[in-house]
């Protein structure tokens, strides 16, 4: 055995002492993980995942995709959601809470004439989108690949999108400007079900805010995706948006039915932070569980409450602002 002062400190991870009885001892004295063993280093995985999410969610690509999917705005920090003022396209009678006019008459219905202005404002409930994933060290100790990292990122973003849309559907299902209809769930082959659902949506188009399905965004439960995709394949079109002739947003979670959101009357208003970012992505070390916690969050207002003035007296001198039905919610019953 050498004197202790003759031992040289290992300089790289390849240095090892092997003993026939006690196995081998491996030295890791240099900062070699990020360069030579990145594929087994959890911190490298987390850093790459956060960077990819940051680049996508706070980049122009995501904003363009968001605006293509649903009408939306990205407003500076501290500002309010932008309401809209749009002219109605057709006459319509609306029902509202009974109001008293000057003649002490109770009025519960009023006619909205074509050319009247609809004001839209944010719903009473804003949506906080917040998702957290915990990445345990021992799940990645065997290594990972670029492809598995990409698949994880894509799955996380899709889950967030569908879940957030589901929360929006829940808010819209009880919004004052939502009209609810019940229809029997079609049965039969996927093509037959899809065709019947398209017929149902077409028959419930609100002619005041749109004249065809292309004027709407269809909020669709993800459980119906396979049905519409199969029907699209049989019809020889690329996807369900071509089949429907309308923009489609899928949602997961509780099934609230199908929604028709008028493109020109509703929007989502995302709040930017002081740096101009819509999404906040954080990675925190969870020492108690030997893991990393990744949280992705944002806040969005739903500009979907329609208001319109109706006459309470024949001469039109007394008017009242009431909720205007713009969004159609078709609930499918067994």
Briefly summarize what is shown.
With 334 residues, the chain is an alpha+beta fold.
Describe this structure in words.
There is one protein chain. The protein is an alpha+beta fold and 334 residues long. It folds into 2 domains: 28 residues, no CATH class; 293 residues, no CATH class. It is 28% helix and 35% strand. It contains 8 helices and 17 strands. The strands form 4 sheets. Strands 3, 4, 7, 8, 13, 14, 15 and 16 form an 8-stranded mixed beta sheet that branches. A 5-stranded mixed beta sheet has the order 9-17-12-10-11. A hairpin with a 5-residue loop joins strand 5 and strand 6. Helix 2 packs across helix 5 and helix 6 crosses helix 7. It is globular. The relative contact order is 0.20.
Any chance you could write out the topology, listing elements then pairs?
Layout lengths: L15 E4 L3 E4 L6 H4 L5 H16 L2 H10 L2 E4 L8 E4 L4 E9 L5 E7 L4 E6 L4 E10 H4 L5 H28 L4 E7 L5 H14 L12 E6 L3 H11 L4 H5 L2 E5 L6 E5 L4 E5 L8 E7 L4 E21 L7 E5 L3 E7 L1
Helix pairs in contact: 2-5, 6-7
């Amino acid at each position: 055995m050498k004197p202790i002062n003759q031992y040289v400190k290992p300089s790289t991870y390849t240095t090892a002492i092997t003993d026939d009885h006690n196995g081998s001892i491996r030295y890791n004295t240099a900062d070699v993980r990020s360069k030579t063993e990145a594929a087994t280093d959890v911190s490298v995985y987390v850093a790459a995942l956060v960077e990819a999410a940051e680049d996508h969610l706070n980049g122009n690509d995501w904003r363009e995709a968001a605006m293509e999917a649903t009408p939306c705005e990205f407003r500076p920090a501290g500002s309010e959601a932008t309401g809209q003022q749009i002219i109605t396209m057709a006459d319509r009678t609306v029902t509202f809470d009974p109001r008293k006019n000057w003649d002490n008459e109770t009025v519960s219905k009023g006619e909205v004439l074509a050319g009247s202005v609809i004001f839209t404002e944010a719903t009473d409930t804003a949506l906080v989108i917040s998702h957290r994933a915990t990445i345990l060290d021992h799940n990645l100790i065997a290594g990972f690949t670029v492809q598995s990292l990409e698949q994880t990122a894509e799955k996380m973003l899709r889950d967030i999108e569908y879940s957030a849309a589901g929360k929006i559907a829940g808010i819209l299902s009880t919004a004052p400007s939502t009209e609810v209809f019940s229809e029997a769930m079609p049965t039969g082959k996927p093509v037959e079900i899809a065709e019947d659902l398209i017929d149902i949506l077409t028959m419930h188009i609100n002619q005041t805010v749109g004249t065809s399905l292309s004027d709407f965004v269809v909020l669709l439960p993800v459980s119906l995706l396979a049905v519409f995709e199969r029907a699209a394949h049989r019809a020889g079109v690329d996807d369900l948006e071509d089949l429907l002739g309308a923009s489609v947003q899928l949602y997961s979670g509780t099934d609230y039915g199908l929604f028709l959101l008028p493109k020109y009357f509703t929007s989502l208003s995302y709040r930017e932070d002081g740096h101009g970012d819509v999404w906040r992505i954080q990675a925190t070390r969870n020492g108690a569980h030997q893991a990393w916690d990744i949280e992705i969050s944002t806040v969005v207002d739903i500009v979907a409450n329609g208001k319109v003035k109706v006459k309470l007296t024949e001469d039109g001198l007394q008017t009242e602002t009431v909720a205007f039905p713009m969004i159609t919610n078709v609930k499918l019953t067994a």
